[in-house]
């Protein structure tokens, strides 16, 4: 795949970039390795000052960055601005809390281990490679980079090939904030070159956010090298609605969950599992609200849904819908690619799903929702858990017993009750099953790429 900005609103190539040569990659890995020696010698207050300065830089570049995100991957401009500001919040969060999250922990009773004292400490691992996707071009990188650098690690970024300008901006961001030269470096390389970077002895760990096949490939190489890996892969999150739910709020949130980021979010509700007692009303509200959305130019403030980021992505979502319709699915609303330039697809709701339809098990990475009618909570959980994914979930109920049941029974990295899944710096984020392993954000996110070292003293 060419390293290029191809505007998904027009389908036109705006700028192309040459891939880094083997010598350039070697130099950049060397820079990150040298920077680690300098960075780990600094203290948390110094790193925090640099991280806050970098946060101020991206806030100062808000309009420029938001426009860049929209041009490169097509999200509505208001959502692009929100992404930039969320990144700054995350950077300040780790600047404020890294020292607490990584503080030494004394054993309360050292005599139990025949010591005068014993404790644990966190040490950085070194250079960490991040393989990142295009759907949140800034946020996905910052949610890794902020905790990694605050812990004393340095970072290498292999970004998606269709967001190169965002990747280049990130190449110097932390250095501009004050971090040692080389603390974070972008590698303009293709997917085939990733394995060699993981295999480099100076690279100590890898994190990937992306597709399940990409995750399996990266994990296999990391495993061969006995290197730590954190994977955040696909998701087909259930959105369960029970009779006691506020249907107006649930249906409105369902729309936002399904079409945010033009439907291209791993943690978005995708499968809407509704109790039969309220199914008809929810389906009516959901379908009407999806149909009322404005599809158009993502630079227009009035636009709700812009184009999909790539032509391939648009074609794949169209194929999933066509497969379901050919096998008898009901189109509640949408179901077409508009006849216009760019890679648009209508907000779509399908009902009457059967097990032979690809949409039942595969992730719909676009503004397409599936509706399921269920008789009770047990059937709801059975459908929720039937896919190989387990990223997040949303449950709508005002019944405390049901709430407890779903929290225990749903196989996912998170359960959000009466709200849509959102990532917060304060909460651990990640999945189970084919959605990956490891956690980002909160204390868990900064501890992932550290050596938890035990110290025993006679």
From TrEMBL:
<keyword id="KW-0521">NADP</keyword>
<dbReference type="InterPro" id="IPR016163">
    <property type="entry name" value="Ald_DH_C"/>
</dbReference>
<keyword id="KW-0560">Oxidoreductase</keyword>
<dbReference type="InterPro" id="IPR047110">
    <property type="entry name" value="GABD/Sad-like"/>
</dbReference>
<dbReference type="InterPro" id="IPR016162">
    <property type="entry name" value="Ald_DH_N"/>
</dbReference>
<comment type="similarity">
    <text>Belongs to the aldehyde dehydrogenase family.</text>
</comment>
<dbReference type="InterPro" id="IPR016160">
    <property type="entry name" value="Ald_DH_CS_CYS"/>
</dbReference>
<dbReference type="GO" id="GO:0004777">
    <property type="term" value="F:succinate-semialdehyde dehydrogenase (NAD+) activity"/>
</dbReference>
<dbReference type="GO" id="GO:0004030">
    <property type="term" value="F:aldehyde dehydrogenase [NAD(P)+] activity"/>
</dbReference>
<dbReference type="Pfam" id="PF00171">
    <property type="entry name" value="Aldedh"/>
</dbReference>
<dbReference type="InterPro" id="IPR015590">
    <property type="entry name" value="Aldehyde_DH_dom"/>
</dbReference>
<feature type="domain" description="Aldehyde dehydrogenase">
    <location>
        <begin position="3"/>
        <end position="455"/>
    </location>
</feature>
<dbReference type="InterPro" id="IPR044148">
    <property type="entry name" value="ALDH_GabD1-like"/>
</dbReference>
<dbReference type="InterPro" id="IPR016161">
    <property type="entry name" value="Ald_DH/histidinol_DH"/>
</dbReference>
<protein>
    <submittedName>
        <fullName>NADP-dependent succinic semialdehyde dehydrogenase</fullName>
    </submittedName>
</protein>
């Amino acid at each position: 795949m060419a390293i290029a900005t191809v505007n998904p609103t027009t389908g036109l190539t705006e700028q192309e970039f040459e891939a880094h040569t083997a010598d350039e990659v070697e130099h950049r890995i060397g820079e990150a390795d040298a920077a680690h020696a300098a960075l780990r010698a600094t203290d948390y207050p110094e790193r925090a000052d640099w991280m806050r300065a970098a946060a101020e830089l991206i806030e100062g570049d808000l309009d420029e960055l938001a426009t860049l995100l929209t041009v490169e991957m097509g999200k509505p401009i208001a959502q692009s601005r929100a992404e930039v500001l969320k990144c700054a919040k995350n950077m300040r969060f780790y600047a404020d809390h890294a020292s607490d999250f990584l503080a030494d922990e004394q054993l309360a009773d050292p005599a139990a281990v025949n010591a005068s004292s014993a404790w644990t400490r966190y040490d950085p691992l070194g250079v960490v490679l991040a393989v990142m996707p295009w759907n949140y071009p800034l946020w996905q990188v910052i949610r890794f980079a902020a905790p990694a650098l605050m812990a004393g690690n340095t970072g290498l970024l292999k970004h998606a090939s269709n967001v190169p300008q965002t990747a280049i901006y990130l190449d110097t961001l932390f250095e501009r904030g004050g971090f040692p030269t080389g603390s974070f470096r972008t590698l303009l390389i293709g997917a085939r070159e990733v394995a060699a970077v993981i295999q480099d002895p100076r690279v100590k760990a890898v994190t990937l956010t992306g597709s399940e096949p990409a995750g399996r490939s990266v994990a296999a190489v990391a495993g061969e090298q006995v290197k730590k890996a954190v994977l955040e892969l696909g998701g087909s999150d259930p959105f369960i609605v029970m009779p006691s739910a506020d249907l107006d709020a649930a249906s409105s949130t369902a729309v936002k969950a399904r079409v945010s980021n033009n439907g291209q979010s791993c943690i978005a509700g995708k499968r809407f599992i509704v109790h039969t007692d309220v199914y008809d009303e929810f389906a009516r509200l959901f379908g009407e609200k999806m149909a009322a959305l404005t599809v158009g130019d993502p630079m227009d403030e009035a636009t709700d849904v812009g184009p999909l980021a790539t032509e391939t992505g648009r074609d794949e979502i169209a194929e999933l819908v066509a497969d379901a319709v050919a096998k008898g699915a009901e189109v509640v609303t949408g179901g077409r690619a508009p006849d216009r330039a760019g890679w648009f697809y209508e907000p779509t709701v399908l009902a009457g799903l059967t097990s032979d339809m690809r949409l039942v098990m595969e992730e719909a990475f676009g503004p397409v929702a599936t509706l399921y009618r269920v008789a009770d909570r047990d059937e709801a959980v059975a459908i929720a858990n039937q896919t190989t994914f387990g990223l997040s979930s949303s449950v709508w109920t005002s019944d405390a017993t049901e709430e407890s049941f779903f929290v225990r029974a749903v196989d996912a990295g998170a359960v959000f009750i009466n709200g849509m899944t959102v990532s917060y710096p304060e909460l651990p984020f990640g999945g189970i099953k084919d959605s990956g392993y490891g956690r980002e954000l909160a204390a868990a996110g900064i501890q992932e790429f550290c050596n938890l070292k035990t110290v025993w003293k006679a």
